[in-house]
Structures are given as structure tokens and as C-alpha cells.
Write a structure and sequence with these properties.
This protein has about 375 residues and is α+β, with helices and mostly antiparallel strands. The chain has 3 domains: about 130 residues, no CATH class; about 100 residues, no CATH class; about 80 residues, no CATH class. It is built from 10 helices and 10 strands. About 35% of the residues are buried.
Length: about 375
């Protein structure tokens, strides 16, 4: 989630009984609720370093412990540097560590349901995990959290009451998103209709937590295209708007859907030919050739593919024999056609240029 949401949530936690742990708990919760995003410092090494470390160690088990100690330590240090901040009812260092750990854990738990995902087990495993329920910025969370802090500020009792109400609404928002996500996935076969090929591998079944990078699929013996996986990614404007991504063996196909749309209600797979939803998909080719495989091993290519959940590869060749390979994470493309040059679709890309002798002459992240 964005840092404004994390900050508002941290202050809301400080209005629960956690705030009775002593002076300094609000500051500790505010610091801890944002601490995992300290990985932003990796941008000093460039975009590649940022992607390499983003949502990694700081969102893993060691990060939870280390950042809790650091948040508590900063509060204690501030007291020592400014005697005016010392009081008889100051929270102890141990209590600040416990409160900070709650703040860091909630940061991680709020990032996990986003379609961006986190590397939950890093540094022991660098796999990404995601529930795909929430966008990076949820306007409804922001409204609920900000409203709870604005109203009922007069007394401590009002603050505590409002905090409970706000946290209840937060849980409802997550519940609605989770239910709509499940419904979007159930509607996917109807959306793609007869264009949806059989699966490359038998479905894993029962997976509620998605993870990547995934192993290469076992393609069909006849060499025809097959379905790797289907995902439903949340929209920003409404909890009922979703982007359906179908990863085929040779392309990605995208559908935008509102799960409340009455056209989808009661339609079965057998009736899908008459509905024509499948004619509305956006297609992104994903053709892997030897030169694409070489581009994937470059420093920029390997970092991008380690980050990207749905990397689509496209290759352009010029008269001199130079090949330009562009990887695009289709999670972040707009609804425009695949050859559009919109800034957002170009932001999450990697470009590698390889000459006719197989030498890498250029590599870059971003537009």
C-alpha cells in the first residue's frame, strides 16, 4: 500500500488499547508502519538495484525483527536527545519494540494482498507472494482511515470508539475485495469463451496465495498453445472492477470486467458463444526465441524477470542484424492496444539490445 495509508493505519492503531502502553507508542507505530519501505534507499544504486531489493528483506522475517528494534530505538534516542520529551509514563524500550513489531507486521500484511506482492520469506527465499485483492492505492481505505482520525477527536473515549469502527470498516473492505476477486476468477472462462485453450499443466487446485516466478510449463505434446494460468488483478476505482490476465504459452490476453455486470449473470460455458465476451480481449505476444533467452540472462533482464509476474517478451530486428528485446510486465499496462506508448505501460519495462555477433550493446530499465 501507499505510505499515506500505512501512516493513517499506524495512527489508528495508536488509538486502540496499544496507545495505553505509554508515551512514545504513537511515534513508534508511525515509524514502524512505514519502516519496511526503507528499501527505497536502494534507488541510490539505480532502478535495477531498487527492483532487486524492493519488498524483499525489509518485508521478510528478519526485516520484521530488525525494523521493530530500529523503530523503538529511534524513539528512545529522540528522548535522550531532547529532555523535554521525557516523562514518567514513557513506554519502556521492550514495550516500544513489541508495539513496533505490531506496526511492521501490519505493514507487511497490508502489502501482501496487493497485486504487487511481497517477498514474504526473504532472504531465505526470494519468491514473490500475493493475494491480488487490493490495488496499491485504495481510495476507500484512505477515506475510512482519514475520516476516523478527523471525527471524534474530542475525548480519548471517542478516539478509542472511532478506532474500533474504522478497523471494522477496514476488515469489511478487505472482505468485499476478497469475495469480488473470487467471483472475477469464476467468470474468467465465460469471458474468454472458445478462445481459452486447455491448460499446459494440470491445475494446481486450491491455491489461495499466488507466487512467482513459476516453473516453465509443460507444453502440450501437439505443440499447440495452452493456458499457463489466469489471474484477477484489482482496479483502482471500484472493488468490483478487475483486470483478468490469462497467460498462454505464446501470449497474454487481458479482459476488463465488472463483476456486477448483469450480462455475466447466469451465463454458462455452454452458452458463451452467444455472448461474445471473448471478442473484446487485449493481446500481448510473448514469443521466446534464443535471443530473448540471452537477453533474460543479462543483469537488467535477470533483475526485471525476478520482479515481473507476467513478463511479455517482444523482439524487433533491424537490417544490421541487431535485435532489440523488450520485456513488459502486463500487470501495469493500460487498456490501450499492445503497441501503445503510454507512460504507464512503458514504466515497468526492460530493454536489451544485442548485435549480430551476440554482444549486449544496451540494457535499460524503464522508458
Amino acid at each position: 500500500m501507499d505510505n499515506i495509508t500505512h501512516s493513517l493505519f499506524g495512527v489508528t492503531l495508536a488509538r486502540t488499547p496499544l496507545g495505553r502502553a505509554g508515551r512514545g507508542t504513537t511515534a513508534a507505530l508511525l515509524l514502524a508502519s512505514n519502516a519496511p519501505d526503507v528499501d527505497f534507499a536502494a534507488t541510490a544504486g539505480g532502478a535495477a538495484k531498487y527492483l532487486e531489493w524492493h519488498r524483499g528483506i525489509t518485508h521478510g522475517p528478519l526485516g520484521v525483527i530488525g525494523l521493530s528494534l530500529a523503530s523503538a530505538g529511534l524513539v528512545v534516542l529522540a528522548r535522550r536527545l531532547n529532555p523535554k520529551w521525557r516523562h514518567d509514563d514513557d513506554a519502556s524500550f521492550a514495550m516500544l519494540v513489541a508495539v513496533s513489531m505490531i506496526g511492521v507486521l501490519f505493514h507487511v500484511l497490508m502489502d501482501l494482498p496487493t497485486s504487487y506482492g511481497i517477498r514474504l520469506l526473504s532472504p531465505f527465499s526470494w519468491r514473490w507472494f500475493s493475494l491480488d485483492w487490493m490495488p496499491i492505492v485504495d481510495i476507500y481505505l484512505l477515506i475510512v482511515l482519514a475520516s476516523g482520525l478527523w471525527f471524534g477527536r474530542a475525548t480519548e473515549a471517542a478516539k478509542r470508539r472511532n478506532a474500533v469502527i474504522v478497523l471494522t470498516f477496514v476488515a469489511i473492505i478487505y472482505g468485499v475485495r476478497a469475495a469480488a476477486h473470487r467471483q472475477a476468477l469464476d467468470l474468467a472462462p465465460i469471458l474468454f469463451g472458445p478462445t481459452l485453450p486447455p491448460r499446459c499443466d494440470p491445475p494446481a487446485g486450491g491455491e489461495w496465495l499466488d507466487s512467482w516466478p513459476k516453473p516453465a510449463p509443460s507444453l502440450r505434446p501437439d505443440g499447440r498453445r495452452c493456458l499457463v494460468e489466469i489471474a484477477a488483478l484489482p482496479g483502482f476505482s471500484s472493488p468490483f472492477d478487475w483486470r483478468i490476465v490469462a497467460q498462454m504459452s505464446n501470449a497474454f490476453e487481458l479482459h476488463d470486467i465488472n463483476v456486477l455486470d448483469q450480462r455475466y449473470q447466469g451465463v454458462t460455458d455452454a452458452e458463451v458463444d452467444s455472448s461474445h465476451f471473448w471478442r473484446q480481449s487485449i493481446r500481448y505476444p510473448n514469443i521466446w526465441t534464443p535471443v530473448v533467452a540471452q537477453a533474460a540472462t543479462t543483469p537488467v533482464g535477470s533483475v526485471f524477470l525476478g520482479f515481473s509476474r507476467f513478463p511479455a517478451a517482444r523482439t524487433a530486428n533491424d537490417s544490421s542484424g541487431t535485435s532489440t528485446v523488450r520485456f513488459t510486465d502486463v500487470r501495469f499496462v493500460s487498456s490501450a492496444p499492445a503497441d501503445s506508448r503510454s507512460p504507464r505501460s512503458q514504466l515497468f519495462t526492460a530493454t536489451i539490445r544485442i548485435d549480430g555477433q551476440g554482444r549486449v550493446t544496451f540494457q535499460k530499465l524503464g522508458p
